[in-house]
Amino acid sequence: MKFENTGIEQLKADLNRLDDVMHEYGLVRAGQWDYDRVTYDRKFELKEGVFYLRVQGYAVQGDVDTFKAIIQLLTPLLGKHYYPHGVEYGEGENFPASLVNQCKQIIEKIKEEVSQFAI
Question: Residue 82: pLDDT above 90?
Answer without folding.
Answer: no
